[in-house]
From TrEMBL:
Keyword vocabulary terms for this entry: Cuticle
Molecular functions per Gene Ontology: structural constituent of chitin-based larval cuticle
KW Protein biosynthesis (keyword) present: no
Renumbered residue ranges of the record's region Disordered: 93-114
Gene Ontology cellular component terms for the protein in this record: chitin-based extracellular matrix
InterPro entries, alphabetized: CHIT_BIND_RR_consensus, Cuticle_Struct_Prot, Insect_cuticle
Top-level division of the source organism's lineage: Eukaryota
Keyword Flavoprotein: no
Protein's name in the database: Uncharacterized protein
Amino acid sequence: MKTATTTSTSNPKMASVGLRVVLLMGEGAIVAAGQYSYTAPDGTEVLVTYVADENGFQPQSDLLPVAPLFPHPIPEFVLEQIAFAAEQDRLRALEESHERPSVRNPSGTYRAPQ
C-alpha cells in the first residue's frame, strides 16, 4: 500500500487543504481523504471533511443538509388506503381464479354470432 499526503493553501479564502491518497496494490482502488475549510459570506467558518472511495465522494460537515430519518411515521389515512388497495387486489385475484363474471369481465360465456 502506498500513501501520499499534500497540503496546499494556494487559495487565500481556504484555511487549509489536505489530501491523503491511498493506493491499494493489486486491486486498483484509490482512496482519497482530507478536509478543507473556508469562511462563508455570512462570516461562518465552514469545515468539510471527506472520503472518496468505491462508494463515491462522501463529504461531512455540520452545515450540510441531512435527509430525515427513515422510516418516518406514516399517516393513518395512508395505511388505510394501502390496506384497502391490498384487499381490492386480493378480491380481484380471487374473482379471476374462480372465473366469476365481474365488472371487468362481464360475461365469460359470450361468443361471436354464428
